[in-house]
Amino acid sequence: MAITTFSSNVGRIQLHRAWPPKLAGREVLLLGTSMRRTTEVARDLGLMEGIKPFIAEDEFGFLPRDKAVVVLTGSQGEARAALAKIARDEMRNIAFTKGDTFVFSSRTIPGNEKAILDIKNALIDQGMIVISDTDALVHVSGHPRRGELEQMYQWVRPGIVVPVHGEAAHLHAHAEFARSRNIGQVAEVRNGLMLRLAPGTAEVIGEVPARAHLQGWQSSR
């Protein structure tokens, strides 16, 4: 079995190591540079206490299939991630066989649909079983809800809130929510806008080339 998820989510990596694998008697292998790096930092910070070390790549081949699970990067179809390499059969030390299960513990970020579908199709063509959140309850969003945001604001008591990550509707809704919670300054920005936080009041002071602005910037040169 293999589970692909976001490498930056330490809590989810802890979960896969401590609970389901433990109950099923499985050892866990981490694949992907970013996932290993994240876990190493988390362990240095004391966030992996009680979680025994993960197995090495060269140990995986000696374990029965029902005694091992791989947690790996590539849930968004990244071409250089571990999952994509497995789909292309490019991994040197790790191999899967017909009937192995791949669980996508993630949701598709808009724009990544084709890359993810290509990987799923490649795995299925090799005889793998692919399970995603449309098939079973294998993913819970890592994005906070309003109550969780409010709790964070109570803990942190920020003087400035800058909503980021999401479409315009998400950013605006977050800004309105922050204002309703009496945050002193709420700055709504978009790609390419340069925001000065201090000294003085937070305000947009310029623009820089960034994705949505890049084409227009290049044509004006």
Name a few traits of the molecule.
single chain; 221 residues; alpha/beta; Rossmann fold; two-stranded parallel ribbon; 9 strands; elongated
CATH level 3 topology of the largest domain: Rossmann fold
Total discrete domains: 2
Shape assignment: elongated
Instruction: Spell the H/E element sequence.
Output: EHHEHHEHEHEHEHEEEH
Distance between the termini: 52 Å
Number of strands: 9
Instruction: Strand order, main sheet: write it out.
Output: 2-3-1-4-5
What's the mean pLDDT score? 84
CATH class of the largest domain: Alpha Beta
**Helicity level:** 25-40%
Supply the helix-strand structural class. alpha/beta
Q: Summarize the biggest pleated sheet.
A: 5 strands, parallel
Low-confidence stretches: 213-221
Q: Which architecture of the largest domain would the CATH scheme give at its second level?
A: 3-Layer(aba) Sandwich
Using the CA coordinates, give the radius of gyration. 21 Å
Put simply, the count of helices is 9
Proportion of residues in extended strands:
5-15%
CATH homology-level superfamily of the largest domain: Metallo-hydrolase/oxidoreductase
